[in-house]
Every structure is written in C-alpha cells, then in structure tokens.
Write a structure and sequence with these properties.
Blueprint lengths: L12 E4 L9 H9 L5 E7 L11 H10 L3 E7 L3 H11 L3 E5 L6 H10 L3 E6 L17 E5 L12 H4 L1 H9 L4 E5 L7 H7 L3 E4 L1 H4 L4 H13 L1
Parallel strand pairs: 1-8, 2-3, 3-4, 4-5, 5-6, 6-7, 7-8
Helix pairs in contact: 2-3
Length: 225
C-alpha cells in the first residue's frame, strides 16, 4: 500500500479533526484546510464502548482517502484495536494511534501495526500516568496526549493533562512527535507547545468557524508567539 508519511518530528503541525466538520461535505471541508498547507488530517474513530460516542469506521476512511493526499492520522478510541487495525490500514489510514488502556501487549501491537505499513502512535487519557507508556513510547512515531476526556468535541483544555508532554519529551527525545488533542485553540496552543508538543489537533477551532483559512492562520500565529 502506498502510504503517506507523517512530517518529520520537530516541525509544528496543525491537524484538523474532521469530528467537527460537516459530514455531508467532507471532501469540501478537507479541501479547504489542505488548500492552506495542512498536511495531516485527524480521524476520530469511536466505538461507543471505550468512549461514550460513536463515529465512523473503515468505509468512511476509504471515502476520505479517495478525496485527499493528506496524511490520515487515525485515532482508534476503541476497545479492541487489534481486531480492526488491518481494516483501517486497508481503507487508507497512514498512521494509526491506539490507546495504551486498551492493549495488553503494546510492544507486540506496535510491531503488528508496522507490519501493516502504517506509522504508529500510542495515546494516554487524562487520568493515565506517563509511566504507562514509558516502555512503548520510544518505539512509536508519535505519542498522543488527550487534553480532554475522549468522546466529544468542544470540551475545555485540561492543563494538568497537557503537562505530561514535559515528561514525555524527556522520554522520547526530539525524534518522536508529541500530539495533543482536546480544547486546542489560539489561547491554549502556545501552552501545549511550551510543554513539548509539536502536533496540535484542532476541531471546533477550525471547523466551527466559517473562515477555515483564518482559523488555521490564527493557530499558526499563536504557535509562533
């Protein structure tokens, strides 16, 4: 499978989450953000079991794949990611992130995902300590720190959760991306950057506005301050 690769670690990336987009016009929504230089798009996959919401599965990922060359950053908020990872890779996911809380042998699962031809991320929820990913994080391409409790968009940024990025950066060094997801907007993105994040998932801050280019510009401007 021809996979698109995550940009090199150390470059700052705004990653729009389609969870907040208009699902009736996803191709147009994604085109609007990639037109202003967005390289990575975030896909929130929820099963109604691990998190209290349902979103979409591989068929929607396959449809998105047809309309964009952006890196598809697929976040599996599901109870049994081992069961479904191959389907998401086949649908066109370039990068798959799983939750440390859902996998009994994280190192083995990282190998499985690499065998599917995707880059790999591990996620921890706000209540999960950094030590839970200490062994597996350096083996991944990205660590995702949830800065809200996963399930729904529009929640407020949790500073204490974001502070985990400080310790994570010490663990993984400069070559692994640290992504934050939840409550990211121009008032919080700078804080996450200072803690060590280089990848910023934003949903409502982008798709909740009529001018997506201006919203992305505002986020980029806040990073540069």
């Amino acid at each position: 499978m021809n996979k698109h690769r995550l940009p090199k670690a150390g470059t700052f990336q705004i990653v729009p989450s389609v969870l907040s987009a208009d699902f009736a016009n996803l191709a147009s929504e994604i085109a609007q953000v990639t037109a202003v230089g967005i390289e990575v798009v975030h896909l929130d996959v929820m099963d109604g079991h691990f998190v209290p919401n349902l979103t979409f599965g591989p068929p929607v990922v396959a449809s998105i794949r047809k309309c964009t060359d952006a890196v598809l950053d697929t976040h599996l908020m599901i109870t049994h990611p081992e069961t479904y990872a191959e389907r998401f890779a086949e649908a066109g996911s370039d990068h798959i992130t799983f939750h440390i809380e859902t996998v009994s042998d994280p190192k083995a699962f990282v190998k499985t995902l690499r065998g599917l031809g995707v880059s790999v991320g591990v996620t921890l929820n706000p209540a999960t300590p950094v030590e839970a990913v200490k062994e597996v994080a350096p083996l991944c391409d990205m660590v995702l720190v949830m800065t809200v409790n996963p399930g729904f968009g529009g929640q407020s940024f949790m500073d204490q959760a974001a502070r985990k990025c400080i310790r994570l950066r010490q663990l993984v060094g400069p070559e692994v991306r640290i992504e934050v997801d939840g409550g990211i907007d121009p008032t919080t993105i700078g804080t996450a950057k200072r803690y060590g994040a280089d990848t910023f998932v934003a949903g409502n801050a982008i798709f909740g506005t009529s001018d997506r280019a201006a919203a992305i510009a505002a986020l980029r401007g806040a990073i540069e301050k």
